[in-house]
């Protein structure tokens, strides 16, 4: 008895007919999963931008084996760095909302020494403390947001942003500061700012962060202040 054989073309067609329902079912599953994921992350935003930072430093009665010429280190200016992160935001109810932000900052700060010492017979001003001015920080913030009724909110929205933030230093300190344990690892700051949204296309923001606790250990008191300029986009726009 001869074996029953099907031409390759017919066999291929039968195979397509057999797997088509499973393929359509899987496609429908992935399509639904993608829609569900997009709906869940509708309140998740990505942000990035530039920060301008400065440290205001009062050394008090601090002393060390070193003295630094402030003509090389004193820089009373805000210097640029950059940051990026993720933000989880609640939906607006009666123009009020909250957000939880997590970002990584690469800060390069100005250093404003409020005190100096003179070393005879040398000319100039000196300090026994040399501030670290370039470092990585992990910023965690909780913000309250409210819509300001100063424009047509159906087209443009301006929002006031308020809340606390905590910076965690990720970079190592210099050897001198490490030996004297001059820097704290955590800094508490207060944030205030504005956000501008063009419908739902994009959001620009400007935040000012004022140091509340000292960035350095006593007797050195250092206030870390910064301006953050950046942009928020919905994470769902990338899915």
Distance between the termini: 58 Å
Radius of gyration: 28 Å
Largest sheet: 8 strands, mixed
According to DSSP, the number of beta strands is: 10
Brief summary:
This protein has helices at residues 8-40, 70-73, 175-179, and strands at residues 44-58, 68-69, 79-89, 96-113, 126-127, 134-148, 156-169, 186-198, 202-211, 221-234. It has 239 residues and is α+β, with helices and mostly antiparallel strands.
Structure description:
The protein contains three helices and ten strands; from the N terminus they run αββαβββββαβββ. The chain is 18% helix and 48% strand. Residues 36-41 have low confidence and may be disordered. The protein is of the alpha+beta class and 239 residues long.
